[in-house]
Structure formats: C-alpha cells, structure tokens
Amino acid sequence: MFFTLLRLQALKSFRSTSFAKSALATGFMIFIALLLLSYVFFAGLFLGRIIELIAEGRDALDFLNSGLIYFFLVEFMYRYFIQKLPVVELESLLHLPIGKKRIIQILMLRSFISPLNLIALLLFLPFGIQDIQEQYGTLGFISWFGTLLFFSWTLHWFMLWFKQRFEDSIIGLLVVFATLILGGGATFMGWYNIGELIAPMFAMALTSLIPLVVFFLLCVVAFILAFRYYVQNAYLEDLSDEEDVRFVNQSFGFFSRFGVAGELANLEWKLIVRHKKSRTYLMLSAFFLLYGLIFYTNPQYQRVEGIHPIFIFVGVFITGIFMIQYGQQFLSWNSGNFDFFLSKKAGVESLVKGKYLLFLSISLVCFLASVPYAYFGFEILMVHLATFLFNIGIMVHVIIYLALWKPKPMDLNKGAMFNYEGVGAAQFLIIIPLMAGPYLVYLPFSLLIGDYAGLIALGISGMIGLLAFKPLSQLNIQKVLSNRYEISSSFRQEL
C-alpha cells in the first residue's frame, strides 16, 4: 500500500502541467539538502577536535553531554519552522477504499523519511564510533547514541502533533518563545545552566540502558499522540487551517476613514490573517522584533560615545520587518483575484493605496513595539525613530518599485518556509537598497559631523519622503497601471 500511494503521487506530479518547473525546483532542493547534510557529516567527523578546541581543558564527552540540550533546542526551532505536516494528500486519499488509520500510518511513516531526521545521525555517529565506543565499548556506544537518536525522533513525532494542533496560533508562538527564553535565554542571562541539568542523563546512558529505554518509550508515546490526533481529526474540515474567528473577521476601524483604499486595506488584513503563508510572515515579524537583543546586548557593539553603524541596519530591520517581508511580493498576494480589481473603476489604484496604508500602519505598530529597547539606552530609541521615518518615507517606495518587476503568482495556503512561489530576481535585489540605502544617508553625516547628525539626516530624509508621499506613491501606481495586463496574464499561469 505504501508503494501504491507513492506511485499515485508520482503520477500526479508527472501529469501536472507544471511538472518541468516542479522537477527543477525539487532537483535544486535535493542538491541543497545533500550539500548541507554533507557539511553536517564532515562536522561530525571533526566534532571531537572541535570540542577540544573550545572545551578549554574539559573532558570532550562531558562538555558534549552538557551541550546536547542546546542542539535539541535548535532542533526544536528548525523543526517548528521547516518540518512539513503529513496531511497534504488527504483530500485525494480519503475517498479511496482504504482505512483511515492505514492512510494516517502511511503518511506519518512517509513524513519520517526526511533530511531533518538524518542530522543527529550524521553529526554524532562519527564521534560516537571514534570516542565513545573506544572508551565505553559497543554497549555504551549503542546506549548513548540510541538515547540521542530517540530524543531527536521524539521531537519529530511531537512536532507533528504540536504544529497541527497549535501552528499559527498564539499558544504555539508563546511555547516557542518560552522554549527560547527558558532554554538558551536562561543560560545567556546567567539564571541557570540547563545543559548541566540534562548532562547526567546522557552520562548515565554510557553505563546504563535505562535512558535508552526511557526515550524509546517517549518516542512511542509521541508517535501515538500524533497518530491518535490525526485519526480523530482526519476530516478535511478538521485538518484544514483552524482559524480564530474573532481575529479573522476583525477589522481596523480607523481604515474606514480612508475611503475605498481603507476598505481594501481592511480586506488585505483579513487576507493576511486567514491564509497560512501571509499569517506566517506576520508571526515571523513579531518574532524578529527580538532581533535587537542579539546586537544591543553584545559588548562587541558597545561604544562609550556614539552609535555602532550596525545599529542602523538593526533599526531598519526591526521597524520595517513586515514591510520588507510582505512587500517583497507586493501584488503576488492578490494573484488569485487581480482580475477583479482590473474590472473595477480605480480598483488597481485603490488596491495599491490600500497596501501602502497597511504597510505604514504595521510599521508604526512595529516601531511602538520596539520602544522598550530604550532600556538599552536612549540612543537606541533615536535609532529606531530615525530608521522608522526612513522606512515609511523612502524604503517603502523602493521595495514596492522593485517588487513590481515581473511579479509571479503564489498559493496563499502553502507555508512560508522553503516555499519559493512568488519569488523572482526582484526579491533578491531588494537586499541591495535595504543594506545600502540607509547608510548612503547616514554615513556621510556620521563621518563628517557625528553619529547623531547621521541619525538626524536619516530622519529628515524620511520626513521629506513623507511630504512627497503622494507623487512618490503615484510613480508605483502608474507602473502597475501601465503593466496591469501583462501582470494579469502572468498571474493566470498555473503554479
């Protein structure tokens, strides 16, 4: 049955009109996966030597045992953002004369065939053979390495349940934040060392089979948890994206003051909340508001006087993260209904104005959410204010202008991670003005006069852009209008 379903999936792919494009994308992703896994394997070959260099005289195995928890914290994070759920084929399988439990079993086993489940194997197997087997024998190696693998595979089955149950929800986001704070953040802040709390378990695995048995049972429990949840909810209306109606249908009241453009901004907000990919971008924007903690607490970037130049990029990133991410695919979000706006009087113009309004509003929210960074110094607040003005006065027009170069269609119900629908050359070119634009204004004044003069120049240039907002936005509106039929034709192409 497993191979029969694989054959059906292969026939579905071969018969697709976009088979050539999908095959090229799949081949590229396989190449990238093999390349990354080869890097992991070579890192595993030299893991013992790497630990000796950074362990500062400590025993390499003790150091590794105390640091394994951080590997699993990282694994939890990349599984949350990358690991795919095994329910995408249900729509084409539930009508077949196959037991529902059998379908779920096959889909779950198929999900286990993933490069993510090879990372722990490739990284720690060479070290186990070279060091642990030599010191503790084959039984000690099997117990230690088996405990590590079952820990990793437990995360796999747990994540299948967790993502289906809480993905794109407030609870899921809070769990991710709590994992970061209680895990790596607690150690970084010096509250306690979670690695030292977990190390005795792996040390015991060297001489006892108890940890191996415990984690084997945890892996089985995680599998049963995910399996039962999928079986109980294996209906299209249940395994579809669950949305909180209170948020899906909620509008921003002040948008209504801006006429048709405001109404379309409201519709755009509902589109963002309702669809998986756009909602993921919104959640990532909230997540990346913590980006400043990496730089503002790092002694390397602290100065007695003045501001480190890297803070300018951090400020642009924090206050404009949603505009940068969502704006890169400016019209691709509306590829499914772009013809509707073409058929309405001033529909395209109102659509573009509505998106402008939404970008400016969410950028303002991001700036207000970043105000607590003033705890690290009043100059940080000045950086965020200057970069916020520059973003809404200058960068928003640049990002939209580049995003209008040959926009591509996309499916909004697919996830954002490793999904390149709607991505073209323009999305990669946007990084150039993002990196260079603020510094072209800031650095001349900073070098000639001082850092605060650079911030004032950055803020003033943004305010000038706001004063000239109407003619600048009209340039992008005219670009859309002049290419509207070409854009509409490209959106009709099947993904």
UniProtKB/TrEMBL annotation:
One family name in Pfam for this protein: DUF5687
Transmembrane segments annotated in the record for this chain: 21-51, 63-82, 103-129, 141-162, 169-192, 198-227, 280-298, 310-335, 356-375, 381-405, 417-436, 442-469
Keywords for this protein: Membrane, Transmembrane, Transmembrane helix
Keyword Membrane: yes
Identification of the protein by name: ABC-2 type transport system permease protein
